[in-house]
Amino acid sequence: MSIYDYSVEKPNGEQQALADYKGKVMLIVNTATGCGFTPQYEDLEAMHRDLHEKGLEIIDIPCNQFAGQTPGTDEEIHQFCTLHYNTEFPQMKKAEVNGENELPLYRYLKEQKGFEGFGHGPKALAMSAMLKKIDKDYKDNPDIKWNFTKFLVDREGNVVARFEPTAKMQDVRQAVEELLG
Which of 7, 35, 42, 108 is catalytic? Predict the structure, then answer.
């Protein structure tokens, strides 16, 4: 299987085949509207605005699995993002990224790039401390740990990087730009 064998559902029920993005760089993100990381939408939209014409596709998959921080309907999520962050990249239907009902795409992504830690700094320490309370073995599984985990896919469909929400957005952008050439 490759990334191009998967699809994600749009809010209207249509399937978005990832094969439609062959030759593009994809950034696949599980998002939330009420999270401390929600302002990352601003950086994601800036990347979309600046790099879409060069071949970047952002795949925004809202998810409510982390502290219920995306409680709205698909339409309410879309309205929030366009009103507060002027997002123009498409959002997919709200879905699960872990567990029994996780999207098959996320099972594949986690097999390609497992969890490698939150990095360093205050946000990384805070995330680690919080997750230890929820799951003392969180470091030992590839599950998505929180909102705004990002997977970077190159033009050939290879999952080349996983960025936890604590990663600096300028580092994410730099990796995207390197793949775009």
Answer: 35
- The CA distance from 64 to 55, in Å, is 29
Spatial separation of the C-alpha atoms in residues 68 and 172, rounded to whole Å: 25
Which pTM was predicted? 0.97
Residue 88: count of CB within 10 angstroms of its CB: 12
93-115 pLDDT, tens digit each:
999 999 999 999 999 999 999 99
Hey, what CATH topology would domain 24-180 get? Glutaredoxin (3.40.30)
Extents of the domains making up the chain: 24-180
How do 150-153 and 159-163 pair as beta strands? antiparallel
Q: Which residues contact 117 (CB under 8 A, 6 or more apart)?
A: 124, 139, 164
**DSSP-assigned letter for residue 42:** H
Q: What digits encode the pLDDT tens for the residues 9-51?
A: 999 999 999 999 999 999 999 999 999 999 999 999 999 999 9
d(C-alpha 9, C-alpha 15), whole Å: 5
Alpha helices in the chain (DSSP H): 40-51, 74-85, 104-112, 122-134, 169-180
CA distance 64 to 97: 9
145 closest CA partner among 121, 128, 158, 157: 128
Dist CA 39 CA 177 (whole Å): 21
Active site residue 63: no
